[in-house]
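User: Fold this; tokens only.

Assistant: Input:
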Amino acid sequence: MRKKAMFRTRQLVVSSKDLRRPTPRPTTPTQQKQEDQQTQSHLSGAPPTALQPDEPGLSGQSAPEYPSEPGAEKNAAELYHALMSEVQLVSDVATKGEKPDLSVLTDAVKDIYDSLKKDDSMLTETVRQRENTYSWALRAANTTILAIRLGLEVSYDERNSLGLGLCALFHDIGMQTIPEEVLSSRSLTPQQMKLIRTHPLESKKIVENFGGEFAWIGNVVIQVHEKYDGSGYPNSLRGEQIHPFAQIIGLTDTYEAMTHPRGDRGAHITYNALSQIVDLRNQEYDPRLIKALIHIVSIFPLGSLVKLNNGSIGRVIQTNKLQSARPLIEILIDTQGNRLHKSEFTNLAEEPMLFIEDPGIDESVLKPK
């Protein structure tokens, strides 16, 4: 049986001193060579060099291992929906100024981490959830899964991954203090925009109320909307002044928002969303993290709608690291143009006569005619 208390006390006790801002390092010829190697690795399909937190309290330590409970393994869909439910319950308590029991979430983050270490089925769940509504719990779950996966891509160990996951869960909890009429507004007034930009401060206040062993999360969530070039808020931090966890969460939060529908708009074409993010390298996001994100979602991004050469249309739900042009496709419209109501899957790695003809199909093709 997993020991919850051990995880809560040994994993996440981080002092404010441990979360001091990293000091920017000058670029040496060796570092420049490493960056060149990263670029070459990206182009050849190899994972990029690790981008680790520069924190004595958050790196270089291994987390305690927990024995697996017989028969307790859940599939990705069960883990995903359990995470959303638990996040909503905890946030309902936290936003009232009360101290929630976070043990269920520490366990949930550990389950997500274990699942992502095994395979990418949890990523598949994030792209199959396409409800056209704003759900804070759904967005928190998606961002957490993407953040942990991106952390693994840049070689985070278990302890860093679990800390990153908890920060991602609460990165936008302050948005729950913003009035619904502001959140649902199609065009924001300057006053409404100013109000929304206060939510990182509210997020910090809420999580600091969790208590000593979790209060450190506040020093991360307040930085999630800072940008690599200093154009973010609330403190206009730049580059390595921004905590590594916040950099990862900021990028995955943006990718999640662009690739999922909201109440006032549909989802962006995933292929186009990734292209827009690439254009922001060295501006809003660390280019090393963008390279890692590309490596995860592949040349045909996870969640994108594509058209096959037989006329069928489907969604990329699993990438293929060995054959990046041949992912797993969930067919949504058959070769005759009919919308399918029962899932059918095509693994292009097993279908040599099929290939992706058009990678940029708009979500509007799925709307009833």
